[in-house]
Amino acid sequence: MKKIYLFLLAVASGLILSAGWPMNGFPFLLFAGFVPLLFIEDNINRFRGNFNKFSMLTYAYVAFFIWNLLTTWWIWNSTIFGAIMAVILNSLFMAMVFSLFHWSKRGFVNRQNANYLFVLYWISFEFLHLDWDLSWPWLNLGNAFGMYTKWVQWYEFTGALGGSLWVLIMNVLVFYFIKSLIENLKLWKKITLNFVPVLVFIIAPMWFSEMLYRNYEEKPNPVEIVVAQPNVNPWNEQYILPSRDVINRNLVLADSLVTPETEFVLCPESAIQEDIWHHSINKSPSILIIRKFINDYPNLNLIIGASTFSLFQDGEKITKTARKFSDVDKYYDAFNSALFINKNEDIGLYHKSKLVPGPEKMPFQLLLRPFQDFAFDLGGTVGSLGMSAKREVFTSVDGKFKVPAIICYESIYGEFCSKFVKNGANLLFIITNDGWWGNTAGHRQHFAFAPLLSVETRRSLARSANTGISGFINQRGDIIEKTDYWEPAVIKASLNANDKITFYVKYGDLIGRLFTFLSGLFILISITSSITNRKKLKYWRIQKQ
User: Fold this and answer.
1) Which CATH class is domain 222-353+388-506?
2) pTM for the whole thing?
């Protein structure tokens, strides 16, 4: 096959993957998104003499660069440097995984049928990509079904990695089917045999999901929740307006729907822009405004986002995220926090713990910390924010309900969020500020991932976004109500709390752990085989001489 055709196949792969991504895409397309790349790999594998050692990496990079660019270009609106690095690096990581699969096949006798390695390695990549300094799991394949939760109700067992596994298996089966179609035009029996698995692996998971969806019934345990969407422009209002004005936008909206029966009011991330210090939190003017509002509703619990700071006392152990004051020999930590406020004197605090690389967290901090003052001012706080040591849940005034405040980016980490449920959460709350990205696919994709979290945990979910999309989602992942983007809004719903623990919450990403172990095993086999083959080749050449 001419190299120009291989290049066009790589482009086709990137376009198909992009067309399958939410919100405007159709996830069925993902079942064939990797097929052109698999044909490229097959061609290079069969005609290795015509290609150099980096050919597979190059073609794969073209495909994944297109996919990353067309689906996550909107990061540019928030941070130009961050967008460039996200697209370049994530494309490179994906291309390296595909190249590793290509290289590993050479160590197996029946290399033409070793495409299962692609499935193993890609799942391992998605799993490992969830928890390191350059974590960016936005394009994990299982996330694509957020608007089609009726198809993936089995996420309560597998999590989103189960969806990734479904997509990858389908790509391998479609590849074999198309290959048999091309090579055996007249052998209908063989073609049919290759088509049957394709049909089965499409229909069976969807049928099982449909059964789960129809049979799932929420037990009545209603909680009245009000969600405020103040629509404060993060670029020219949020950090300029007086903090009092921003808070009042939230409270005025909430007050229009709050009743004596309302248990929770949910306000977005970073709604309080006053610098709140932990040691004097109850003296904060912002907190006093909120407490005055709550006094009229003694059963009310309010969650709101804020920037908070903790001062290290003399002799106290300094954390690795600590910053030094410029004028005194003192240290402090900065946090992206959620505050839980009710009539009780104590205020609950949770600090965002899955931080965005760059704006909120310096990757490889021990290595790069000397450069933090000038290298990472990308729209967030200079340097790395502090984090909570555990997944905090807050208990309502009446003691009936326990809730987390999942902050923004954290909501795309299924196993991470499941730990809130393990700690007792019977509802899920998300607070976010997606206005940085403008009216692009970014905020729509972020909202689309939330229903998957409800299915994984079987928890009703409320979401407050500063500029949209806010909404309510039930335990089956159905969107009950949502707001429009870039409009002030307030909505109210009665959601059912749930105390049952799903298989996924209990055991987490088992698929990821198993496949990572198997991938390591097969990589070792490939390395051993490669060394052995080299020794045999060297011995054969010596004997020939």
Assistant:
1) alpha beta
2) 0.93
